[in-house]
Design a protein that fits this description.
Blueprint: H1 10-27, H2 31-34, H3 37-43, H4 50-53, E1 57-60, E2 63-66, H5 67-70, H6 72-101, H7 107-131, H8 139-164
């Protein structure tokens, strides 16, 4: 029987599987289905922090990201989307690491495996987006996803090191 407990790691592996299903579903949707512009227009109608945010300008995947170039609401949505990338893969990488490290005590094997597994899933997820209409697969998103998984694993290792002292 597949008992879900934190001690044996199964709980975290279930979390990883759920996150993978959420990511698969998300990449099956078109940009229009995912867009939050109408909600942002309603929730942020006063455009808070616009003056401060107007100072931010950078290049991402060959496109300029700034309020002047995208408009306030698309600019905010860009950061929400990229935060979602980082956060979902943070959860995926961390869950994989916690689930597998409960089964294999060799953290030096489990840590890179968890990051590379999340990175591999990110690459297949971007490929899946390529098959979905109105989506643009980006190598930069795969790297952002990998950074999220790596940060989760490093944070868990740091917390464990602090606890063991």
């Amino acid at each position: 029987m597949f008992k879900t407990s934190r001690k044996n790691g199964n709980f975290y592996l279930v979390v990883a599987l759920i996150m993978m299903a959420v990511l698969f579903y998300s990449s099956s949707q078109t940009y229009e289905q995912q867009s939050q512009l109408s909600n942002l227009t309603h929730w942020l109608k006063n455009q808070p922090l616009k003056d401060w945010l107007s100072r931010i300008r950078f290049d991402y995947a060959g496109s300029i990201v700034s309020i002047q170039h995208l408009g306030y609401f698309s600019f905010v949505e860009f950061f929400i989307r990229k935060a979602a990338h980082f956060t979902t893969y943070f959860i995926l990488g961390g869950s994989l690491f916690l689930g597998l490290s409960a089964k294999l005590k060799a953290w030096w094997v489990v840590a890179p495996f968890s990051v590379f597994a999340a990175l591999g899933y990110a690459a297949t997820d971007e490929f899946h987006q390529m098959l979905t209409g109105g989506r643009t697969p980006l190598f930069q998103d795969v790297m952002l996803d990998g950074a999220g998984a790596l940060c989760a694993v490093l944070l868990i290792l740091l917390i464990r090191k602090i606890r063991n002292k």
